[in-house]
Fold this sequence. Notes:
The protein is α/β, with parallel strands linked by helices. Helix content is 37%, strand content 26%. It has 8 helices and 11 strands. A 6-stranded parallel beta sheet has the order 3-2-1-4-5-6. A 5-stranded antiparallel beta sheet has the order 7-8-11-9-10, sandwiched between helices. The longest helix is centred in the middle third of the chain and has 13 residues, at 71-83. The two termini are 31 Å apart.
Amino acid sequence: MLVGVNDISVMVARLLVSNGYDVKIIARNEDEAGLSKGVPAYVYVGDPRDEALLKKAGIDESEVVMLFMDDETNLNVARIAKSRGVPTIISLVSDKERYLDSLIELGVYAIPIVDAVLSKIAHYLRLPFKQMLYSDDKVQAYYVVISSESPYINQEVMDVARRCSVAIPLVIRGDDVIISHEGLKIEAGDKLLIVGASDSVVKCVEKIY
């Protein structure tokens, strides 16, 4: 389920559909819904904070909820998604000073927009194989490129995450963004998002890339 329609969420929707996902989209109004025209997904129009609308759209059966609206709406919907037992919640964050901690405390994979842009620039400039995206005294998030010498090549992403006691929610492979799932194996050149407790993330990053 994608909440919010913009250029980013439309691209993500197309990517998910091409990878076999059934996608539901929540649009705030008809104009916003029109932006998703041509995307093979079910579109629901209304206030995404309305739990009845989310239930109608199938939040209780959703494997993943991704949030692309303003930070306050994203936080409100994340709370609903968490209360409905959604296993994976991903949210973009504009104002990380005000909202990042609250999302992380909920167990949301929060991606600050500015950090994501910097990470992309670092990729094009071929900057180091690892880059810290976020850190505080409890949590860290790293963007890691898998080198050809990594001992984890051909190992399953979710198995590595379990053994490292971290989360690896996303793998970027070429132009594709892949949501981690059972059976997905690490390949040389993959870009992994690694999130978790600071000590666990540091140890995992040092081993994996």
